[in-house]
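Lab notebook page, bench 4
Experiment: in silico fold of construct C2
Operator: M.H.
Input chain length: 43 residues
Purpose: comparison with the prior construct
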Amino acid sequence: MKVMDCTGLAAALFDEGEVERGTTAADQALDNAARIDATLVAS
Protein backbone atom coordinates (compact mmCIF):
# COMPACT_ATOMS: atom_id res chain seq x y z
CA MET A 1 0.00 0.00 0.00
CA LYS A 2 1.32 3.45 -0.87
CA VAL A 3 2.30 5.90 1.87
CA MET A 4 -0.45 8.37 0.97
CA ASP A 5 -3.04 5.58 0.94
CA CYS A 6 -1.97 4.47 4.41
CA THR A 7 -1.99 8.06 5.65
CA GLY A 8 -5.50 8.64 4.33
CA LEU A 9 -6.71 5.37 5.78
CA ALA A 10 -5.23 6.26 9.17
CA ALA A 11 -6.91 9.68 9.11
CA ALA A 12 -10.27 8.17 8.18
CA LEU A 13 -10.02 5.54 10.90
CA PHE A 14 -9.10 8.12 13.54
CA ASP A 15 -12.01 10.29 12.38
CA GLU A 16 -14.36 7.33 12.80
CA GLY A 17 -13.06 6.65 16.32
CA GLU A 18 -11.14 3.52 15.30
CA VAL A 19 -8.03 4.49 17.24
CA GLU A 20 -6.34 1.09 17.32
CA ARG A 21 -6.85 0.46 13.60
CA GLY A 22 -5.83 4.05 12.83
CA THR A 23 -2.63 3.58 14.80
CA THR A 24 -1.83 0.42 12.86
CA ALA A 25 -2.40 2.20 9.55
CA ALA A 26 -0.26 5.15 10.69
CA ASP A 27 2.53 2.78 11.70
CA GLN A 28 2.36 1.17 8.27
CA ALA A 29 2.58 4.59 6.60
CA LEU A 30 5.66 5.43 8.67
CA ASP A 31 7.27 2.08 7.84
CA ASN A 32 6.61 2.62 4.13
CA ALA A 33 8.02 6.15 4.26
CA ALA A 34 11.14 4.94 6.08
CA ARG A 35 11.63 2.22 3.45
CA ILE A 36 11.39 4.80 0.66
CA ASP A 37 13.82 7.08 2.49
CA ALA A 38 16.32 4.26 2.97
CA THR A 39 16.06 3.34 -0.70
CA LEU A 40 16.69 6.93 -1.78
CA VAL A 41 19.65 7.32 0.58
CA ALA A 42 21.17 4.04 -0.65
CA SER A 43 20.92 5.02 -4.31
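Observations: The mean pLDDT is 92. The radius of gyration is 12 Å.
Next step: discuss at group meeting.
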